[in-house]
Design goal:
The chain is an alpha+beta fold and about 300 residues long. The protein has four helices and 16 strands. The protein folds into two domains: about 270 residues, no CATH class; about 25 residues. The protein has a seven-stranded antiparallel beta sheet.
Length: about 300
């Protein structure tokens, strides 16, 4: 097992780092990864992510404590692209969504421009990707969701338009997580294989994504970026839960593609009051045990 630590290289200044932290959640500070062999090719898998979580300060979250996703909706009015680890196989039918659902940083999906955000809960004809969290994500202090996405150096970088699944609840809003909003470079020189799926008429359903024919499109060298998302910016009150999110791609033109590699939720951090109660109880228990020991000695 080859484990390495990747330090984030912020593309923005230190001053911007502070401003972003106040407005939209602190950028990711660092990640750790390991290479995993799959018999003939390897993937680069996330093992931990370190970031500032509001009043709790800097925290390192192990991959085992991240909440993964299931893709439940896919609709794109053009060719779609599968991102596979370098020299990996052409993704067979029934495994395409898993490229986004796993914890590998060098697999994912890439699609062309989609929209400006939903105004109501998603329906089958809405263009974009819908994901459910394996466990509802709690909106606590600071970031609650982590995104990783790639930039094709030849085509430039686009950004996600993120919508709650329960739009219509008072206060819920969509947002574009764009330039200058906490994205940080977490990897570069990542070789991946791009496979084209579907036709120019579109990939209208998740079933079509999983079943339509694919062909090798290109070998690409990507730059990987990460960002942390606070559910409060989507209109969730602190203490509320999100069951999932909906993603579209911003930008226009044939090169305006957004390529998500990973979308994960962060586990709930105990409330400060709970921590105080636990700490107080532990101190009290230790005090009782100390008194008992002294009595035995006497």
């Amino acid at each position: 097992m080859n484990v390495m630590r990747i330090k984030v290289v912020l593309w923005s200044s230190a001053a911007t780092f502070v401003i972003i932290g106040v407005a939209l959640g602190e950028p990711i500070a660092s990640i750790t990864t390991q290479t995993t062999s799959h018999g003939g090719y390897t993937t680069l898998d996330l093992t931990s992510v370190t970031l500032v979580r509001g009043v709790y300060g800097l925290q390192t979250v192990d991959a085992a404590d991240l909440t993964n996703i299931d893709v439940f909706h896919y609709n794109w009015p053009d060719f779609s692209y599968l991102l596979q680890a370098d020299t990996g196989p052409n993704p067979p039918t029934g495994t395409r969504a898993a490229l986004l659902e796993d914890l590998s940083l060098d697999t994912g999906l890439m699609f062309t421009p989609g929209g400006t955000g939903l105004s109501a809960p998603p329906i089958s004809t809405d263009v974009g990707i819908g994901v459910n969290f394996d466990e509802d994500v709690y909106n606590g202090p600071g970031p609650d969701v982590v995104l990783f996405a790639s930039e094709d150096p030849d085509l430039g970088r686009r950004y996600p338009v993120v919508s709650p699944l329960d739009l219509g609840v008072p206060g819920r809003v969509s947002l574009t997580r764009g330039a200058g909003q906490g994205w940080a470079q977490v990897g570069s020189g990542m070789d991946m294989d791009m496979y084209k799926v579907g036709t120019a008429s579109g990939v209208d359903t998740l079933s079509e994504l999983e079943s339509q024919s694919t062909a090798k499109h290109a070998d690409r060298n990507y730059v990987l970026y990460g960002a942390a998302l606070d559910l409060s910016n989507l209109g969730y009150a602190e203490g509320e839960f999100a069951s999932g999110l909906f993603f579209q791609s911003s930008g226009t033109g044939p090169g305006a593609r957004w390529g998500p590699h990973m979308i994960v939720g962060l586990h709930r951090v105990p409330e400060p009051s709970s921590v105080v109660v636990f700490f107080t109880g532990a101190v009290a228990l230790a005090g009782i045990q100390l008194v008992r020991r002294r009595r035995k000695r006497n």
